[in-house]
């Protein structure tokens, strides 16, 4: 059982940033509005995430660490309409099989917090803390040295973690985030609007040279900002695409945006953008791989055309 968990963990928990992603998604699924991320040694030594979400009742704490015990999917047909970010019920169990995990949580109506340490077999004990949840993950891969060997330098692992935080923070301006590494606060973003959050994360030259986009057609809705080439210092890695709230890297979408830039601006410059595509969940399969950023559209031609034309029309305003 432990071995199966560790093998599964290899899939879900490739590196510290994958843990950060899973924990952040859980915090968001719990309705949190403030999330604190504390990392030590690139996340290998410690990833501690505290949220102010709805918390986990004490009798649910062992379940949270059990494989395939999710509170989020009631039936198979729900799989078609996943509204939450996590739905497989294996992330925490997988993480707990390759690291030391402590879950401390307090629901709104509880007199105090409770905690569980180690695995679903751990004892639930009283603890202290505000409403919400802290998941403290220490010594990642301590029991799987082969995996640990694949990790890169502390700075590289940290950079991957920070990128995951940026991606999620960009898509959730309604949530405050703060990120620290080795005791030093690196980033802090207050609750704000999408325009401000993206300026904050992508920098002022993006904020000063971008066009807002908001177009809908049938079940497809695209909104966000496309940067102009004059945003010269725009980061090379400043391209963000979200589908139903999830960050994705998708060939169809990237191609559609690129083609629109080339069509209007003719250059081979490819500025920063932050775009969100929302569509009926039945029209997209996000179930391709838990830790990957892939999606599969039922009708990728229609999606491509829609995104291409929306970005093209928006950029064309510059030459009008
Ligand atoms: P999933 O997110 O797929 O349901 P996880 O293993 O990520 O599975 O989490 C297991 C369960 O633990 C969740 O379904 C949820 O009930 C609970 N949980 C985990 N993290 C949090 C959190 N930060 N706040 C509230 N509940 C949480
Ligand atoms: Mg989850």
TrEMBL record:
Key words of the record: DNA damage, DNA repair
TM helices/strands, residue ranges: none
Any one GO BP annotation for this protein: mismatch repair
GO cellular component: mismatch repair complex
Function: This protein is involved in the repair of mismatches in DNA. It is required for dam-dependent methyl-directed DNA mismatch repair. May act as a 'molecular matchmaker', a protein that promotes the formation of a stable complex between two or more DNA-binding proteins in an ATP-dependent manner without itself being part of a final effector complex.
Domain DNA mismatch repair protein S5: 198-316
Family that this chain belongs to: Belongs to the DNA mismatch repair MutL/HexB family.
Species assigned in the record: Massilia aurea
Residues of the full protein shown: 16 to 335 of 646
Highest rank taxon of the organism: Bacteria
Keyword DNA repair assigned: yes
GO molecular function: ATP binding; ATP hydrolysis activity; ATP-dependent DNA damage sensor activity; mismatched DNA binding
Protein name as annotated: DNA mismatch repair protein MutL
